[in-house]
Amino acid sequence: MLFRLLIFALLVGSLVGAYACPSCMQMQPSLAEEFEYATAVAIAEPVKPGGNRYRIVRVLRGKLEPGRVVVAAVSAFRKPVFLATTQSEGSPIWSGQPSSAESGRVVEFAEAVLRLPARKPGTTSHPRRLDFFASYLGDPEKAIADSAYAELAAAPYLQLRGYSRRLGQARLRAWLEAKETPEEYRSLYYTMLSQTAGPSEAAWLKQRALASLRQSPTGSQPALLFAYAQVAGQPALTVIRDKFLSGDLTQRTMAVQSLRVLAAENTRMRPAILPLLHSQLRDVRLAGGLFRDLALWKDWSCADRIYQIMLDKETYSYLRMSALRYLVSCPRADVQARLKKMRSHPPDWCPSWPAPYSPKEVP
User: Fold this and answer.
1) Which residues have CB under 8 Å from 17's CB, separation 6+?
2) Mind listing the pLDDT tens digit for each residue in 164-221?
3) Which of these, 81, 143, 78, lies nearest to 109 by C-alpha position?
4) Domains of the chain from N-terminus onward
5) What is the rounded CA–CA span in Å between residue 165 and residue 167?
6) In this predicted model, what pLDDT tens digit does every residue of 31-74 receive, in sequence order?
7) How would DSSP label each residue in 222-262?
8) DSSP 93
């Protein structure tokens, strides 16, 4: 995903072994996501408020007749709801989560969504879907805005560029400055701003980045740091090093997450980013995901250090295996010679010899 890139795996526990798009934060499935692979979609009325039985009044996808009663998740809705299922439409139990179908505008939106092609398995975007949802970013109807956010947040970073330019720097910055903008949307907006902002925005992004140090951590902070570094370049890396990588675990996690995505997306800046990531290998809470990144980027300069981390008795078994996979991927003759001896008498924490890291793996 784009990052669903920096619109990032969240906070401290999210880093081990995973990229996230700078723009993504976890949310409940949006209306469009509920519908995308559904075998049946309908508008239904609750048989009883607070219950789990619903009478179908209109079928939007599928062949069921109105009037049928199905069982779905409990909800407090009194008025019509959308229901969807990924199981057989004939099943008496539907798998989707009810959501309000009271707004006529949302119903029209849902009908249009159902005419869109689904994304192919293994992909995170589709041109027709992106074209459709981009026009609904920031919509006043939350169900519509959430669907637009979810679709663009899942898209690869480079595919966002045209939509970022279409929205423009001024609108993205206005959304970011608005207090009512939901926190989860901010990650996407920072990510998109990184593709439209010029040098004049660097000072504004720096101000916001430094201000975030004085506030409770938010899920959009990695995307903010990512955007700042994309726009400001080396000066931003200096700020991240001095102000964030020297901080507590949460701040360092945010910084490392933004730097990992930045290094993946901006190969020109990668040589300057790598020493910053190397500095965090000493913390086992951050190191695991970095081993994979360094291997895929063919950075073998830390092989000796990672070998020692692997041998350290205080290192957790899962981290030792991550370190071993990095070393197995390393082409250096001296490293492979050490591993040859180790493989003949594998340690207890190594139940099977790992394969090298592969770029085809889903991070």
Assistant:
1) 288, 289, 292, 322, 363
2) 999 999 999 999 999 999 998 999 999 999 999 888 899 999 999 999 999 888 889 9
3) 143
4) 38-114 (2.40.50), 289-363 (no CATH)
5) 5
6) 999 999 999 999 999 999 889 999 999 999 999 999 999 999 99
7) HHHHHHHHHHH-HHHHHHIIIIITTS-HHHHHHHHHHHHHH
8) B
